Amino acid sequence: MTVPGKRDATFADLALPDAVREAIGRELRVLPDPGADIDRATARCHQVFAMLPLDLLRSVLDFGRHNDTPGVALVRNLPVDAQTGPTPLDGGPGRGKSGFVSEGVLLGLSGLLGEPLGVLTEKAGRLIHDVVPVAGGERTQTNQSSAVFLNFHSDITYDATGRYDLANPDFLVLNCLRSGPFGDAVTYYADARDICGQLPPDALELLRGPYFRLNAPGSYTRSAAGGAEVLSEPVPIIRGAEAHPEITVSANGVRALNREAGAAFERLQETCREVAHAVRLEPGQALLVNNRKGVHARSRFGARHDGRDRWLQRTYVRRSLWDIRYRVTPQDRRVHF
Ligand SMILES: [Fe+2]
User: Fold this and answer.
1) pLDDT tens for each residue of 164-198
2) Whole-model pTM?
3) Which domain does 202 fall in, by range?
4) Could you tell me the CATH number of the domain that includes residue 107?
5) Which residues contact 144 (CB under 8 A, 6 or more apart)?
């Protein structure tokens, strides 16, 4: 319920009781490969996650369905696989996991928010993305990086309409399988409500104007344009109702149309650092991220590319697949161009 004059809480910390973790873990240990029949797997994970205590279940559902709820939620004390196997080196799926507990956790939480989807240019259309440091990508503004601060951004989708802020996922879910040799990766989330409350009015007005062109994701520009920029139509960075603003920032570069807008964008990145929530994800923890209410970032961290590095699994989630049906591939109703 919105109380006038009261700022919404933008961060939630949720923990499963031990007995519930055990019970969910028991069911997920016998989950077959979700890739064999993804809609059956999501239905099964839905049944399993219905075991969450009512208030916890309601908090996750509220996270997905309401404007005034937090934009980021840490979910702790989740079940984990008996054996994780080595962190994949190539950004692809791991080999050597003892089962599909982590995938079940990811699909169970995702299913409480909406529908997992794939995009052909992101991890070859897979529904479960392995986010790991990849040799050669250390310094890129992509999920392969480790040696650079990954700037505050939204996960956006190239779209032939020239708008990259519409077909993007509503939510990301990150599940941590391994925190890496130093445990030093920090994930940040800055909510547009907190950002707007902190920005000077003139900067906010510029950010609400159509003075910015977003560059398409690196995974798209590499595969479609030899690495050259593929810019969106001019769009605002922040838009919509004052109490419930939406924000879109591309990771792979934002071109401001003039110097004032460029300065406002710089100010935005500073403000994000000031208001951000910071989380060091560990195994057994997942992060629910609203990809419209806020932007996220990641610190630099140590990587050795030896099978022991940090490893997250991620889904892209939409409340509904209906509005992006024009992009769907004929081969798979969850996978999009
Ligand atoms: Fe991201």
Assistant:
1) 999 999 999 999 999 999 999 999 999 999 999 99
2) 0.95
3) 11-336
4) 3.60.130.10
5) 91, 132, 133, 134, 136, 137, 138
